[in-house]
Amino acid sequence: MSPLTSRRGLLFGTAAVSAGALLAGCTSNEPSDGKQAGSAQPAASDTPGKHVTIGFAGPQADHGWLNAINDNAKSRAEKYSDVTLEITEGSNDTATQIGQIETLINKKVDVLVVLPADGKALTQVGLKAMRAGIPVVNLDRVFNTPQAYRCWIGGDNYGMGLNAGHYIGEKLKDKPNARVVELAGLDNLELTRQRTQGFDDALKNYPNIKKVARQAADFTVESGQAKMAQLLQAQPEFDALWNHDDDQGVGALRAIEQAGRDDFLMVGGAGALSAFQAIERDDSVLKATVLYPPTMAASAIDLARALGQGKGIGGLAEFEIPASITLYSAVVDKTNVDTYMPTGFR
What we know:
The protein is an alpha/beta fold. It folds into two domains: 166 residues, Response regulator (Rossmann fold, 3-Layer(aba) Sandwich), CATH 3.40.50; 135 residues, Response regulator (Rossmann fold). The chain is 35% helix and 17% strand. α1 runs parallel beside α9, α4 packs parallel to α5 and α6 crosses α7. It starts with 51 loop residues before the first strand and ends in a 6-residue tail after the last helix. It is found in: Cell envelope. Belongs to the bacterial solute-binding protein 2 family.
């Protein structure tokens, strides 16, 4: 994936196992009168309520993960008879996306869901929406100030690296002088640095393991294949590979197969369907992947609907939805891949 700014937030919940599992559709175990126990305000539920028009603006779907973001938003909105989704044509040009969001503001949508092509560059239009009284759900790539959004929801890049490192560490903890390599994303992205930092911090718990090489790719199949081939040539022996992204992992696996290598284990990142299928088949070095779930877009629609209806999230005592929600980076391997298979993106 190719976000241009960092992602952040407070830890909340677990990765979704279906489009709405994280927030449970903002539903609750509410009494029959619709009120939460001990609350002055009901939580949103699947029962139709006040109609909400949600404007959705995201970048161009030039990556499997971004395409899945759009699909999750659309399918989630279709679930609700009280939601109309005004969706823009995705663009990686910041000026174009700003114009699209301003059009949605002028249409007076009730709530905006925005995955900015560049969080810094789009901060002002987020502020404009908020000042116009339109709550903004900032999806994944964060604006420069929390004044530009009512709620942020996104993934945990540091947690991805941390959980990948611990998974590999537990697999290799009894192997003397274990060696690992890393196929990173784009080094000019903060998210790449966060994933590497999490991985390195996890490995500090395993003194028998040393990271002997790191190569940066750029989240494409072609770069994954080329950079992995370089790693394999430079490192004839190692025990594990942490690959930041399942799309570039497709290319990495091609390079590994072409080199005839099967003497190490590989952990991927994001949660692509192809990775889940390879893990299920168990016929390659890929043994696990760490989630960065695109189901966050479905949860963003749930949050926007709740905001538009002036409701909270079931299961929480607070009247309002949280200001920040970070998804958990679950590790998917052969033991649980069946559970996560429906969430895999193409």
